[in-house]
C-alpha cells in the first residue's frame, strides 16, 4: 500500500462532506453518523458527475445532477440499487489523514 497525504484531520467533522484532490483524482471524504470517515472517488458511477457538490445529510449522499442516492457507511447505491461508489482506504497518521489510491480493492471500471 502506498499511502499519501489527503488532508488534515481537523478538516473532518461528523456528518460532513469534504472534497479533496489527490494525484488528479477528485475525492469526497464523508463522515457518516455513527461511523468513521470514508473516502470515495468523487465521480458518480452513473455518468461521472462530481459528487463534491452533492447533498450529504449524515447518512446518505445524493448526486447533484440526477439524484442518485448512496449509503454513507458503505457507498452502496440505494436509489437505484446495484451500483456503488469506489472507496479508497484511509488511515490517520498523526494529525493527517492519508489515502491509498493504489489499493487493488478500489477497482475503477
UniProtKB/TrEMBL annotation:
The keyword Repeat does not apply. The keyword Transmembrane helix does not apply. Pfam families: Rieske. InterPro entries: Rieske_2Fe-2S, Rieske_2Fe-2S_sf. Keywords: 2Fe-2S, Iron, Iron-sulfur, Metal-binding. Residues 4-99 form the Rieske domain. This is Rieske 2Fe-2S domain-containing protein. It comes from Uliginosibacterium sediminicola. The lineage of its organism: Bacteria, Pseudomonadati, Pseudomonadota, Betaproteobacteria, Rhodocyclales.
Amino acid at each position: 500500500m502506498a499511502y499519501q497525504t489527503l488532508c488534515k484531520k481537523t478538516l473532518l467533522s461528523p456528518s460532513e462532506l469534504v472534497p479533496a484532490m489527490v494525484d488528479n483524482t477528485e475525492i469526497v471524504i464523508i463522515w457518516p453518523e455513527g461511523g468513521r470517515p470514508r473516502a470515495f472517488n468523487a465521480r458518480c458511477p452513473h455518468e461521472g458527475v462530481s459528487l463534491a457538490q452533492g447533498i450529504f445529510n449524515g447518512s446518505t449522499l445524493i448526486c447533484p445532477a440526477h439524484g442518485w442516492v448512496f449509503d454513507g457507511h458503505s457507498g452502496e447505491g440505494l436509489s437505484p440499487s446495484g451500483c456503488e461508489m469506489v472507496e479508497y482506504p484511509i488511515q490517520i497518521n498523526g494529525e493527517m489523514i492519508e489515502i491509498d489510491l493504489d489499493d487493488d480493492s478500489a477497482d475503477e471500471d
